[in-house]
Amino acid sequence: MAQRVLVVDDDRTVSDVVCRYLEHAGYRVAHVSDGGSALAAVAADPPHLVVLDLMLPVVDGLEVCRRLRTRPDGVPIIMLTARGDEADRILGLQLGADDYLGKPFSPRELVLRVRSVLRRTGGEPVDAAPDVLVDDGLEVETGPRIARLHGRELVLTLREFDLLVHLMRHPARAFRRAELLERVWGWSFGDQSTVTVHVRRLREKVEVDPAQPRRIVTVWGVGYRYEPARA
User: Fold this and answer.
1) Which residue ranges run through the membrane (predicted)?
2) CATH of domain 132-226
3) Into which CATH architecture does domain 4-121 fall?
4) How far is CA 95 from CA 4, 7, 49, 157, 180, in A?
5) Where are the domains of the chain?
6) pLDDT tens digits, residue range 21-77?
7) Are 11 and 61 in contact (CB under 8 A)?
8) pTM exceeds 0.70 for this model
9) Is 212 left (phi over 0), alpha (psi -120 to 50) or beta?
10) In angstroms, what is the C-alpha Rg of the chain?
11) pLDDT digits over 83-98, tens only?
């Protein structure tokens, strides 16, 4: 059965083009034009992915993103924004958006981004690593995409989960932000602050003290590494 995508955008021209391209790519597409309707649509019948405009009537895109991130199903979100301010993009990522595109954008690129996010959501393995990763009370099951810390299930976004898995699969290895952008996001180029934001959010969920991280540590002048617990 085709995967379902909810498009949330009040610009009729943009939404018509986006819906047409997604339908042509084989997705089942629904469209709403305001944030309140988006929240109601997701509550009634959760889609596999939401394409979410930042500037919306009734409830704006950032608030919609924040509320969707309180849901346990972790529906992936690709955010669209006409704003050029980097702070808006970073705020969207901080609230839990899995990806973003700035307007104007290529509809073909959006379809590729949707396909990439949904492929990861489907749990395709990145490599032949074990299905369960365990370290000092942190347990990650890559098949069902479940992470627990001392028995408590963590609410992670798609990218947060993939980032954690990638770092845990390569313990004590330092990665540059550009490497993580390519290996986790599948981007050969892009805004590397995306990685910084996701590392910050992930630390808030897996570290005892995010200000002094023990698991996901900064390697100054390089990037980040996962530091396993000492035996």
Assistant:
1) none
2) 1.10.10.10
3) 3-Layer(aba) Sandwich (3.40)
4) 23, 19, 16, 10, 20
5) 4-121, 132-226
6) 999 988 999 999 999 999 999 999 999 999 999 889 999 999 999 999 888 777 999
7) no
8) no
9) beta
10) 18
11) 656 677 777 778 888 8
